[in-house]
TrEMBL record:
The lineage of its organism: Bacteria, Bacillati, Actinomycetota, Actinomycetes, Micrococcales. This is Rhodanese-like domain-containing protein. It holds the Pfam family Rhodanese. It comes from Dermacoccus abyssi. Residues 9-97 form the Rhodanese domain.
Amino acid sequence: MNTVNPKDIADDAVVLDVREQDEYDAGHAPRAIHIPLGDLPNRLNELPEVDGDLPVVCRSGARSGRAVEWLTGQGRAVANVEGGMKQWNAEGKTIVSDSGDAAII
């Protein structure tokens, strides 16, 4: 499985966030595309085209790992974000919330 460390992801990169709505609303990467894991099969056509592997993130890396395995089987170029949003936060990467409240992970 392809993996990528959050510190190696550009601050303006598009990432696929597969967490649930409440988790995403609380805080996410600035250019995240939100498609919950369970919705992926029906929303595959919504995945953006990016140069290289599309980073896939969840809270800790487990759900995104499952998403990466499935998406790879669908012929998609993806990489699991190591440690998920927990590691993203620990690396000091930008996190935003749609509500304007302080982002939390």
